[in-house]
Amino acid sequence: MSYDYNTQRKRMALPEYGRNVQKMVDHIKTIEDRKERNRAARTIIQIMGNLNPHLRDEGDFRHKLWDHLALIAGFDLDIDPLYPFPEPLKFIEKPNIVPYTQGNIKYLHYGRIIELMVDAAVEMEEGEEKEYLTNLIVNQMKKAYITWNRSQVADEVIFGDLKRLSGGRLKITDGIKILDTKELLPQPKKKPQGKLHGRQPNKQFNKKKIYNRH
Description:
By secondary structure, this protein is an all-alpha fold. The chain has helices spanning about 20-30, 35-50, 60-70, 110-125, 130-150, 155-165, 180-185, 205-210. It folds into 2 domains: about 10-90; about 110-185, no CATH class.
């Protein structure tokens, strides 16, 4: 007794239409009469539309179905389609390379945003606003360092990295303070133990209740 496994069958170009649609498309390739092939192809298009009613909301609903028929047939179907079949190369072309503008980031764990903030702070005039922004930067740097490296870091390391990022143009004044790790990262909440809905059980009340029963 032989079994028909999916792994032994022909690979389907669009599995969402199912094996039966694939078989019907393969069958119409064997129909010799061209008019009969065209009629069978239009019947398959109707079936495909019923299997995917969500496509009806799209403006090019019919066009998309004919494109799908071409894909299922492997672009090897001699019929008169309602819409011209697409070129096979259209579906095997490699996508265009997406250009990334992140540039050469010196410290990946700090990210590009930190570098942009440092550049902006460097261009500011000396004063409270520049000191305030620098303070934000060093604390964000420490938070990013701990988050990505999963380890503690000395404040001196953060100050040294800031010096290198700014080319020594940002000064660490007395007004710049780095927060502790507990203040930078949220701490896990401890679950209450031995409490019922936030209240201690009334043991004395329970004892009186028991005594009143006797």
